[in-house]
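Reopening closed ticket. The problem is back. First fold of the pair:
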Amino acid sequence: MKITISEQFTAYADTPLLGNAGETNARRIEAYYPEIPEAENYRLRFKLPNGTIYDADITDKVYKVPGSLLAVSGCILCQWLACASADKSVYSIVAKSNVFKLTVGESIDDKCISPVPTYEDAVAALDKMMLAQAHPPVISDDGNWLIWNVEQEEYIDTDIKAMGYDDYNALSNKPHINGVELIGDKSNDEIGITCLSNEEIESILNLFNGGI
């Protein structure tokens, strides 16, 4: 895509298609604009379909379109800005173009696409993961599992018992054979199992071997 800014700061795009939903760094914008002595950097300001404002630095006149701009399909408003400060957070606008419309095309899996996280969001998610890894689940004094809550930055009680060998009696579904609970050592007679005698075993083997 080529965006041209005239001497009167009127913006023209050679195509309205910014990209298709779900793409990441596959397209680039080439910007052509007049140099303004008072300006220190130049930007394209985008207003996404959800109302989010996104500034892209085009001082080098080339900008790769990130996935965060192509998260969902729809109409995107764009405006060229000439700024008097190189500071990323504080600057004054020397000149600006008209607002013009760009579009993000639909994709077959458009509804399944999640917005690409910003660098700050990715770092925050990594910090939370590292905190959770540094705080494994522990057992409270009353025998419940405690898990680390990354938002509250403290352990919370799950009300789930951390059962061990001594908690067998607390089980609601204990193993049984013939109605006899399997706890401790049980004999065959106690669990209702009758063992065959040697003669009975020999008789069965003879049947399989063709004997009488």
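Second fold of the pair, where the issue appears:
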Amino acid sequence: MEADPPRPRPRRPARGRTGDRGGRRRPAGAAHPGHAPGAVCLYDPGLGVVFTGDTLFQGGPGATGRSFSHFPTIIDSIRDRLLTLPPGTKVLTGHGDPTTIGAEAPHLQEWIGRGH
């Protein structure tokens, strides 16, 4: 029985950089831990869209009550990486209604105060 050939290591997207491969734009990816250790968000400045998965929803951050998640980490990620995007950036979440960075940014202190 032959062993499977080694798989190439996945490349992590460079934080804040978009790519162009074969004439196709690729969104910039960046790690956004907090909800889950391997969480990423994808941002395409040309489209004005960020795909946040379970990091940011309309109304607050993703769940952090699991053993592998961490509320201060997700807040740092949202504050330092997502809320720095232009206010008109459309936020497409892992589930639920879309929102914008501008609609969510004013609520950061509220989320911190409620602790989830």
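Update: turned out to be a display glitch only; the data is intact. The radius of gyration is 16 Å. The first strand starts at residue 19 and ends at 21. Please close again.
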